[in-house]
Automatic annotation (TrEMBL):
InterPro entries: ABC-2_transporter_component (IPR051449), ABC2_TM (IPR013525). The chain crosses the membrane at residues 20-38, 240-262, 288-308, 320-342, 349-368, 410-428. Residues 158-185 are annotated as: Disordered. The keyword Aminoacyl-tRNA synthetase does not apply. Residues 20-424 form the ABC-2 type transporter transmembrane domain. It is found in: Cell membrane. It holds the Pfam family ABC2_membrane_3. The keyword Cell membrane applies. It comes from Rhodopirellula halodulae. Signal peptide: none annotated. It comes from the Bacteria. This is ABC transporter permease.
Amino acid sequence: MVWKVIEIHLRRLRHNRVEWLLTFVVPIAFFSIFALIFSRGVGGTPRVKVALIRDAATANSADEGATSTTSLQCDEVIQTLRESDGLRLVRDSEEDPRLDRAAGEDLVRRGSATIAIVLREDGEQLTAELLNDASDQVASQVVSALVMRAMMMARASTAIPSGPNERPVPAQAEIDSEGPPADSVQQANFQEFARNVAQENSATTSDASSDIATETGLSPPSVNVVNVIGENKSNPVISVYAAGIAVMFLLFGATSGGGVLLEERENQTLERLLSTQMTMDHLLLGKWFYLTLLGCIQVTVMFVWAQLVFGLDLLGNLDGFVMMTVVTSAAAASFGLFLATLCKTRGQLNGLSVVAVLTMSALGGSMVPRYVMSEGLREAGLWTFNAWALDGYDKVFWRELPPSALQPQLTVLLGTAFGLLILARLLAIRWETS
């Protein structure tokens, strides 16, 4: 009898496509998505969006030779950073002379650049300041390592003395006649150090450079990281988590609410409703407005809890929050109705909704921050409205931008809401004619 029970379930599994999907396909699909995210196998290593700014206003040294050498180093650093595979240059002060430190800080605040690299020539010193967006916890470490590598390579190639006890490298004839003096050994150590830094890709490059520079008697380059966003926030990542979780469960709630339409179809309630003066347009619009209102309440409860318990500033950003919540809930409601009209049974809807919602949440940033994804996965995430919703909430709570900055996100989400609602209406025609 035990075997009979097993045989019955095997036959049921063989004829149930949804169960096949959830048992074998979904685990493999999600394993592949997260493997690609964390191994960065799609599109290579994520490239950090940077603005490159050359600020020569502080170069007031009377030593013209030192200043010209520092300028030469700055030229080499800029060229190295332009050719770096880990950076994506969005603005360059060489092409736009109006780009200064204030403009770079504004680019970071608006999200157009993750980091603004400000290079300063101050006499014998070439320093770098990184204007950073603290929401990306990886970019500052990567860019700091790349900038330090470029500065060390520039110092090695120009053979600039970097300390009071260092002297220029002796001529080759002197080396051949007297053997390698201490200065040439020190310079060789410096060049070896520069090559070592050039090969470093880890986040500990800055600390390692300081240790090696101390051992070789060389002063490390000055690279200062300044957080222009998130410095004064008591709980800087809570808005990101609140938005990600709220949008994901908003989708689950909308698909569950849309499934009521299939239940009404199965128990013939839908036929009785349509036999009255109610039309399919009335029914779908009524369900859409209800799901939108329910979604707004659901998201509001999430963010009110975040303010009461975790200190999120909801009241200070209420206008942007209301705009984003309404359009996001509307898009989620249309998505739920679209899946409901696309499926034939509640079982099909349950299987399809789990796959669709989890896939959209993984690619859109609800599960994993998008800044750790490769560029290929980031572009794929733009096909989900999770990414657009999270970008909108990020502008509201993290960047604290005015509502006018939400125009791209509002446009995409509203277009998605009405587009999916129209598709749901077209798919529902079969219920009117059957």
